[in-house]
Specification:
Layout: H1 8-15, E1 29-38, H2 42-61, E2 65-72, H3 78-83, E3 89-92, H4 99-110, E4 113-119, E5 123-125, H5 130-138, E6 144-149, E7 151-152, E8 158-160, E9 163-167, E10 174-178, E11 193-196, E12 203-207, H6 208-213, H7 226-236, E13 240-244, E14 249-251, H8 264-283
Parallel strand pairs: 1-2, 1-4, 2-3, 6-13
Antiparallel strand pairs: 4-12, 5-14, 6-12, 7-8, 9-10, 11-13
Length: 284
């Protein structure tokens, strides 16, 4: 879609057409649904599922529901296909990759827990108590809508710690930026919890009811900005975004996406939808 300059009334009318997915959830249980999109990559998904199954035991020990749901976009690797036979994993097959559409479809059609955790397949951690501890933190404060976590590269530099906006110049120009990107974690005194404007969709936990209220990820984005858009939808409703530092969590970024991919369409859409709201954030 090409954006042309429009008067305000025309722009508002056009924006009414966005985000009309009309999804509904199944009934929920107290606990956590893990939602992962995957295409082969056994070196990532196999160790991740192993640690998730360990985490599941910790949830079950406290009578909490925990499920692992994979949305597959065409895997052919035998190791991955054998993994999908595991009765502790639910797999939705036949998807054509689109971050928002796939995650929405899997979440609304399959998930059963009160909280959802959207996770890239190239995330890994060792602490089997980590997800339970994070879930408990997320349930403590009803004013928190989305929870993220500090993510590290393999060399222990910061891949993600939270996203804020800064103004490039006067007017509608702004830029989201990752706090402390590429700095060594050991050189930083990172608090256990910090509030940010947004967090990354590579590891994003949200209340199930709230995800339904905002109608999931905006499916008009093609490649990027869906996660920040979701966070801003939640913030606009008055909820906070918190990023925790409870464990060492690694993200092998670009393990499932080619480097240099970007979308001018998505960036134009994001600016059109959110520039006024972000200006309000910058003024506060």
């Amino acid at each position: 879609m090409k954006f042309d300059f429009q008067d305000n009334l025309t722009r508002i009318e056009n924006l009414k057409n966005y985000q009309k997915n009309n999804y509904t959830f199944l009934k929920s249980k107290d606990g956590l649904s893990i939602i992962i999109l995957n295409l082969d990559k056994p070196e990532y998904i196999l160790p991740l599922i192993k640690v998730l199954k360990d985490a599941k035991r910790e949830f079950e020990n406290e009578n909490l529901f925990f499920e692992i749901i994979i949305g597959d976009t065409g895997s052919k690797d035998e190791r991955v296909l054998n993994l999908y036979k595991d009765p502790e994993i639910s797999v939705v097959k036949g998807l054509k990759y689109h971050f928002s559409k796939n995650n929405n479809a899997v979440a609304f059609s399959e998930s059963k827990a009160s909280f959802l955790l959207f996770m890239n397949n190239d995330i890994i951690f060792e602490d089997k108590m980590f997800l339970l501890n994070l879930y408990k933190q997320a349930t403590l404060d009803d004013s928190v809508g989305i929870v993220g976590h500090v993510l590290l590269f393999e060399n222990r530099t910061i891949q993600h710690r939270g996203i804020n906006f800064f103004e490039l110049k006067s007017g509608r120009d702004f830029m989201p930026y990752h706090i402390d990107g590429t700095k060594k974690k050991e050189d930083l005194n990172i608090p256990p919890c910090v509030e940010f404007d947004s967090t990354t969709g590579a590891f994003l936990m949200i209340k199930r009811d709230l995800f339904q209220e905002v109608n999931g990820f905006n499916e008009d984005y093609e490649k990027e900005a869906q996660d920040i858009d979701l966070c801003l939808q939640v913030r606009r409703l008055g909820y906070k975004i918190q990023v925790f530092n409870l464990a060492e969590v690694f993200h092998f970024e670009n393990g499932t996406r080619r480097k240099g991919e970007e979308s001018n369409f998505d960036r134009s859409l994001f600016v059109r939808l959110w520039s006024s709201f972000i200006q309000g954030i910058l003024l506060n």
